[in-house]
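Protocol step 6 of 9: fold each sequence in the batch and record its structure tokens directly after the sequence line. For illustration, a two-sequence batch is reproduced in full.

Sequence one:
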Amino acid sequence: MHQRPASATPARTYSRHRRRQDEPMPVRRSVLALALACLAGPAAASADILRQEARAYARQGDALLYRESHWRYRQDGLAHRLVLYRCPDGRAFARKTVVARTSAQAPDFDFEDARDGYREGARSGAGGRTVYVRASANATPKQRIVALPAGGVVDAGFDESVRLHWTALRAGRDVTQPFLLPSRMAFVPVRLRPGAAVRWEGIPARRLTMKLDRWYGFIAPTMELTYADADQRLLEFAGIATIRDETGKHQDVRIVFPDPATPADTDALRQARATALVRSCGR
């Protein structure tokens, strides 16, 4: 998920296996141009631009699989997010952009993986959200207009949903909401269940689990998320990720956000937005 951070998005981070419509599947998972004018000399960090780094490890073990760079900023009064997914050596291979809409937990977003050309997203329109998916660079894109249900959650909006329901979760109450699965072009009910209070690297935190809330949910993977008590920032996500390995297999990962977001400058953000994506993490 994929914070999301900037979330990992619980993480933002959901499966797009090619399955029949009646099969359960793991829950998964264009910004406006920045003004180019800037003053001469070194760019100063801005409180309006925040950057946060994350690392994705194999869930069982310490092998570094990929990195995430999350950027949050405001443009034309709207909250934006940019996520670059990077090879272990730092080269970027995928990009996601998120733009807040009327409902903070249901933003528009666009995700593209340059390794095979997979693309998915949702954009607002008069008739609802247009959800689109392209299985590969050579595949024909598919799209469908989907009505946004009450309480509907889209991609990185999951973090906002957690904050909105934090009081209920801390009180031990489950929260069930419709979550958009772009690969299904539909919203499905997802149950967020509070777990134990923990200390994550010394930080007081709350562990949550997320699972499909349908009869077949018992065979769908359960995702585990850890949020800081003080500010409800995502500290760790564990589960099946949107990002696949080089063979096309979805990975069981543990994504950690060791440090809070810090101010960044406009030049750094502009460079991140213009970063060319590589087609492979191999040499």
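Sequence two, same batch, same settings:
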Amino acid sequence: MARALVTGSTAGLGLEFAWQLAGTGHDLVLVARDEARLATVAEQIRHVHDVKIEVLPADLSHRRQLDRVARRLTDPVAPISLLVNNGGYGLRGGFLDVPVEDHERQMGTIMRAVLVLSHAAAGAMVHRRRGAILNVSSLAGYTTSGPYAAARSWVTVFTESLALELQGTGVTATALLPGFLHTESHDGAAITGEGLPRVTWMKAPYVVEQALRDTAKGKVLSIPAVRHRGPGDGAGPGPRGVIGRLASARMQSRMAQRRLDSARRKASRRRLKAPWMRTADPPAPATEGDDED
């Protein structure tokens, strides 16, 4: 059975990833700072789905704890088939309103953790010639809204470059760029819905379902808000053009209904057909004339 490691797995998108991956038959390694909350989430998922779940409490802004998660990604006995780098959070206040130490911890969680964990996972997966890395970024990375946006921009560009490097290895890298979501990462940040198109506020079940589909297809960019074509998908509007289109009232009304119809936990009852879920290829049968010991 395939195994997925999900960071930031007790709230928001991370929690939704955990539920949907369990529903599609993945064993789980759940990573978050709060050990008690991790245990509660694991027990709730086990009660519904027949999967194995490990809990790995870690604060990804602390290097030693981050390294412990990286070592788990390289375990050859219980290998990880899918890494979901979902850790990250916002800060309340402008750049100068927040102590620089808080900015450093935020950058460590969003950027350094993605760098370190992707390096560990990619090395192990390339050796097995199978696997996928899904890095959660944001459409905020295409805006000029402070260090958080800059960090998410880094995640997107890093993932695009990693995907190019991994071509032909059997391993893929995907960046998820959702719009704004009603999750705990926004509860602590100075982010409101005022003045934003309604379509930019999205439902976590739909975002996760689309992200897993796009990752299974090997897409480099997953942008659930719109149909986006990346560099390898032919001509189409780039992400910066997408941001402008989100302000269209006609698009808001057309897409809002689609999101409402799709934002259900259907994926928890579907079989996800993903390359990293395949078992190892069986040995070729012996043919006549082969020597036998």
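Proceed to step 7 once all outputs are recorded. Observation for sequence two: The first strand starts at residue 3 and ends at 7.
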